[in-house]
Amino acid sequence: MRTAELKRETKETKIEIRVNLDGTGESSIQTGVGFFNHMLTLLAFHSQMDLDVKVEGDTWIDAHHTVEDVGIALGQLIAKSLGDKVGIRRYGSSYMPMDETLARAVIDVSGRPFLVYQADIRNPKLGDFDTELAEEFFRAVAMNGRLTLHLAVLYGSNSHHMIEGLFKAFGRALAEAVSSDGTNRLPSTKGWIEG
Ligand SMILES: [Mn+2]
Q1: How far is the CA of 161 from the centre of ligand 1 (A)?
Q2: Residue 88 DSSP code
Q3: Separation of 170 CA from ligand 1 center, angstroms?
């Protein structure tokens, strides 16, 4: 089982997080931010990783530190649990329809962190969650997970659907990218993947 966990404490957040990339999508999520709990629950489900997240963050300011720090921690645990990356597919992609919205995620477990984020979200807030934090979250995951990650909402109008579509598409693409390709080889002709 590819598992990893960490505890991380700063003046802004106290985080306990555990992942199992070879899980079944079970999760226990307590971030103190309702919409973010909803997103992480469905990210776990669609990525088929088991995910436990417990955060005590400074949400009396806003959700920024909580969301970004969970992204940092999750990215670090994805990188750590992937280990030497031998035998993984490396690439993954998913289109996710949510009623009128279509979202897309494309991942390369490249060792070269990069985020492309194209989403024009109309609503600035969903509950206590500032919608611009979705980009902060995915950037933190990509940088710390050393992933090349391209996310786009191709079209849509409902802000909840658009962000949920991105999280689901990311989960599905991640599940594909980290799954076994049935070989014992490193998925690069260079014979090397950074990180
Ligand atoms: Mn929803």
Answers
A1: 7
A2: B
A3: 15
What is residue 167's three-state secondary structure? helix
pLDDT digit string (tens) for the chain, length 195 residues: 999 999 999 999 999 999 999 999 999 999 999 999 999 999 999 999 999 999 999 999 999 999 999 999 999 999 999 999 999 999 999 999 999 999 999 999 999 999 999 999 999 999 999 999 999 999 999 999 999 999 999 999 999 999 999 999 999 999 999 999 999 999 998 888 876
Q: Is the dihedral angle over the CA atoms 81, 140, 108, 193 positive or is it negative?
A: negative
**45 C-alpha vs ligand 1 centroid, how far in Å?**
13
Q: Which amino acid is at 95?
A: Y
Task: Give the global pTM.
Answer: 0.97
Closest CA to 91 of 183, 190, 166, 181: 181
Residue 65 CA to ligand 1 center (angstroms) comes to: 22
Distance 165 CA to ligand 1 centre (A): 9
Residue 11 Cα to ligand 1 midpoint, Å, equals 31
Q: How far apart are CA 93 and CA 152, in angstroms?
A: 12
Is 91 within 8 Å of 50 (Cβ atoms)?
Answer: no
